[in-house]
Design a protein that fits this description.
Helix 10 links the parallel strand 9 and strand 10. The strands form three sheets. The chain has a five-stranded parallel β-sheet. Strands 8-6-9-10 form a four-stranded parallel β-sheet, sandwiched between helices. Strands 7-11 form a two-stranded antiparallel ribbon. It has 284 residues and is of the alpha/beta class. The N and C termini lie far apart (40 Å).
């Protein structure tokens, strides 16, 4: 995809490209949604389902799955080390970006997002199925998780604040200003305090997507949002956050791959952690 001016156009594929590669053995289509029941109601033929809770998170530790668990997940879905993985999902692909981000923690960077996700695929009347595919298991050899490259922890955020480096709060304006603890329409829970991390600017994640079909905006439009409005530069070290790291993974993807920022990290502890920490600075 080169017509939108992205720095890494190979990280975004069209619905037409996916339709042409449904039976390509070197490609695996992965659906990941906020609504985990959507897959059962219908999905792209051949697509496998990655549940962001059951598949990507450790059930005991507040962390992601480890290397051995990731290897078993890949083997179960017939994904090899050289498989090109295309992610898509609901909510303008925010959970698809989240799944891609977790995969890249293990060094599987042969990945892309299907522009527009489920919404665009359905709008175009493309085929859906309830059949669950079965692939021969693989032997996958994962790297040790390299969190430091694309993931930020609370101490990293504190150091970021002290250094005066940019933080992007991708939540809604109500959450950013402290009027809400969660998105509107969701239970208002998860943190003792409301507001935002000191020094963070507010760029709601969904501004990067076209509301009519869920596709990413052009690079020119994205630069107007992040650079002209907020003053970010590709040379910046940027940390993005939201409430639990899912919406900010979408912004991480936009900044890292569509605009080509090499030093972007996602703070997945986000406001659920920061709003409950003792002794850390917040603003309203």
């Amino acid at each position: 995809m080169t017509d939108k001016g992205y720095v890494h156009s190979e990280k975004v594929v069209t619905t037409a490209w996916v339709a042409e590669h449904l039976t390509d053995p070197g490609v695996r289509i992965v659906e990941s949604n906020e609504d985990v029941l959507l897959y059962e109601r219908g999905h792209i033929p051949g697509a496998v389902h990655i549940d962001w809770v059951a598949d990507l998170n450790d059930p005991i530790t507040r962390d992601y799955l480890n290397r051995e668990q990731f290897e078993r997940l890949m083997a179960r879905h017939g994904i090899a080390n050289d498989t090109f993985i295309v992610f898509y999902g609901d909510k303008n692909n925010w959970w698809a970006c989240y799944a891609l981000w977790v995969f890249e923690l293990f060094g599987h960077t042969k990945t892309a997002i299907m522009d527009g996700g489920r919404l665009k695929w359905e709008q175009e009347g493309r085929p859906m199925t309830r059949d669950v595919p079965s692939y021969p298991p693989t032997t996958y050899a994962a790297q040790d998780r390299a969190d430091y490259k694309i993931r930020a922890f609370r101490d990293d955020v504190l150091a970021h604040i002290r250094a005066g480096r940019p933080l992007v709060d991708v939540r809604s304006p109500g959450e950013y200003t402290g009027k809400l603890y969660h998105m509107e329409g969701y239970p208002q829970e998860g943190a003792l305090r409301a507001g935002h991390i000191k020094g963070a600017v507010n760029v709601p994640w969904a501004r990067a997507a076209n509301p009519n079909d869920g596709t990413f905006k052009t690079a020119e439009e994205l630069r107007a949002i992040y650079e002209s409005e907020q003053g970010l530069r590709p040379s910046d070290s940027v940390i993005a956050y939201c409430r639990i790291g899912e919406r900010s993974s979408h912004t991480w993807f936009v900044l890292k791959y569509l605009l080509g920022y090499p030093n972007v990290r996602n703070y997945d502890g986000s406001w659920t952690e920061w709003g409950n920490l003792v002794g850390v600075p917040i603003e309203r």
